[in-house]
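Archive entry: two folds, one per protein. Generate the first.
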Amino acid sequence: MPALPFTMSTSSSASATALVKHRIASLQHLDLRRYSIDELVARVRELLEGQSLRCLTLATGRLLYRGILGEALPERLADVSYPPAAAVRHDQRANRAGEPMFYCSATWHPPFFEARVQPGDGIVISRWQTRQPLRILSFGYADTCADDPHSDREKALRQALAQLPAETRDLATFLTSTFTKTVADDNRHHYRLSIAVAEACQLGQSFDGLLYPSAAMASPAHNLALHPNCLDAGKLTLDYVEHLRVHQVSPDTDVLDVRSLDIAHCAGPDGYLHWQGRPGNWVLREGSTAADCWLQNGVWRCAHRPGAGSEAAAG
């Protein structure tokens, strides 16, 4: 009976898909005020058991960006890294109160919109570089969207979702929507479910972090929640810190007009940042090496400058 194995496989697959849909519906209808994070973690683990997600490997040398709204210059490296436990007074998207997480983005522009900057605001943007590969868990389709400020976020996400196998779309949609839900002071209980998802994913143990699309931008953008172990182990180190002033912002088109005020390239052994007292000077170095060149007797001569970078950098 050659058709029998196929019939059984199809039936089993349909049954498993129906079970996932049922568990998703059950989670969606919960009054999160009535459930603890621990209770929700158990339910999310049950949902994820046996399901296929995506594990991305961020290679060494990848650049990540973090933003902190404020006028004061941070004094220490610790001020731009993940916050101390005592400073985490409320539940956040991927962590409970008292348990810090390092939130960052894969490109420069999302931290401005995540901080909801307005004209006149000051913001500190820090750039970090991976020194070791990072294991990043993705919910299945956000990572297939180009991080492009000129594209339409919802359209790009729909197209990426359509490329997934039909049996994984419901789960991918649920996990992504859970992590991108808009949460305000009066509905902070919604963070309990996204925290439960993060804890079920065992950040800091099985994975270094999670990738999810920014909900604050009109275009697709990649946000990451990284476990502090990444920084403690030296997998991620500071590249520079820049203090900027926002002059104009267009949320509908993700266009920014900002001015650099000051820049620090490093911290000393004591952990204090070395602010230079001058604006950052942006130099395009993508895909290239830098050299000093001069005109001598009508001929241009070039000499490679040691230490030149291979990415866009602030100088």
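Generate the second and append.
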Amino acid sequence: MNRSARFLVLVLAVGAAAILLVTLTSPPSLSRTEISDSQRDEIASIMEVMAANGQFSGTVLVSVGGEPVYSGAFGLADIERGVPNTLDTQFRIASATKPFTALLVYQLVAAGQLGLDDKLSDCLPEYPTEKGASITVSQLLTHRSGITGEGRIPELGQIERHRWTRDELLQEIASRDLVFAPSTRYEYSNYGYFLLGLVIERAGGASYADQLQHRICGPARMTHTRGDDNDAIIPGRALGYHFDYFAGPENSPYLDMSFVFAYGHLLSTVPDLHRFTLALDNPAVLPPDFREMFFNKCGWTVQSTPVGQGGQRIRGNYLCGSINGFASHILRIEKDGIFIALLKNMKEPGAQIVVKWPAYVTSRILAVIYGEAYEVPRKSAAFAVFEMIRDHGPEAGRRKYAEVVIGKDPAYYVEEDEFHRLAEVLPAVTDATGR
């Protein structure tokens, strides 16, 4: 059977043209450490279809048993100049920065230069003692410090565009009340990781950038990972975009990278992220005493990860990151030696009707690796109707609706909620479809 036939096996049409492959019948278990050429082709087909559909712009790398089995780059790093993404393109990795910060902390603790129970007010005397004396380094790492998360900051859109010095941002954080008593609750706090970045610099006696290079990037042979700087000339750095339903890709809102120091300020590539995960097996990089905490509490987190479309899930360590114009998704299935990294420079804020979230990709890649069922990537019928109404009016939209929904065009999937979402943006969607 040729690749396209194997890839597009049609076994069931449910409701409005749902194309499904055979349902998973048992929990996945990898029985080999090598991936066949046909599986590589199938992963390539998934990515090529998604890129052609406008659903993915960025890079991807898949590794099994420590060896890359597939990598690819899609879309443009700079749309205005027509510069394509490549495997060496550097993307803002957003919260995928946090494992680097956590690892530097653990290395300093292992070296006796810092303690997990050290108090914030002792590490950073500028932080108010009445609050900092009850906050430990461990609580900062595990988001149990009581320091506010960004969701509680109504003026976030304004302050993230400001150029901050380290001292200014420290004072901004210190001026805000704790939202709960330390250790009593969990609340994801980017500000807490900013403070950890300062703690690393004080305890390590060198800049974050220097320690990152000396302690992690150098040993791991990571040559394309560094802190981002809005003013720096960085060859190969991608620009970030947001997808607008009316205008298409637009430059993402400005974010000053000084605001995201130590929690979202790094640039990297998928090959470098693969080198990073391989280096974590080196006890000189990740001290063995901290391995469990790193992978399960503050570096990567544990999640039940979907495999294909049959409802099966598998335990994985993952990290998702999101920042203006960029998203990252890094997944490890440790028991089977699987690693998947995706970096994107196109986002669809608030939805994933056109530009899909990376988990949409990883579930299909895992299905290929495990030989399980998955749904072929298809385009949104709702957005196809929306585009026709937007560009040619409601009557053209009605014709498109009849073609792709009533006619069950197999190139499209139908999701009721997407019609409702797009009708809020363009009310004529309801007039044309009745949905």
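Annotation attached to the second fold: The two ends are 40 Å apart (CA to CA). Residues 398 and 432 are 5 Å apart (CA to CA).
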